[in-house]
């Protein structure tokens, strides 16, 4: 039987316009299928944390601990993770695991308060994709080019690669002479580069300004 909101708030099965609403009833087979699906969604393994340290070395303590969970199923199995200070309990059915989780959570054991949690379920092998999933497309629009150019878009003709102004400025350079980079304009001064001269101390010590040696052209092999 499927209950609607009116069945829980006391308005019955009356519709807002005063008409009677039909209640869908499920057959026995559908109810059993729904219960089986609900049981399949629950895990069959439990994590138990905050366990006493004696659990990993004392056999009597371990038997007492296992007895708590075997009261729900004598086919329960255990694995102990000493490095993580916890234990894992496996039940044959999810119903046994659910009852143990509800009744043993926060139970006192050896002056410790056990904390029992369900093990996170993993997808079944038939539903699991063996390949890596692509990243979430959150900001890919920043790196992806537009699908088509905007309206009235026209390609821009590239300028000539040879900068004649730069070649002319380089040709006017003379070694050892000042060079004006930016001429004066209005109230703005010009920018001029001056060659550093030798100081009297350098002349007295006989230090000469190093000369720039022109790079030698590599030999051309005759073929």
Structural account:
The protein is α+β, with helices and mostly antiparallel strands and 223 residues long. Helix content is 25%, strand content 13%. The radius of gyration is 43 Å and the shape is elongated. 7% of the residues are buried. Residues 1-24 have low confidence and may be disordered.
Q: How far apart are the first and last residues' alpha carbons, in Å?
A: 97 Å
How do the strands of the widest beta sheet line up side by side?
2-3-1-6
Count the DSSP helices.
Answer: 6
Helical residue percent band:
10-25%
Number of strands: 8
Binned strand content: 5-15%
- N-to-C SSE string, H for helix and E for strand: HHEHEEHEEEHEEH
Round the mean pLDDT to the nearest integer and report it: 75
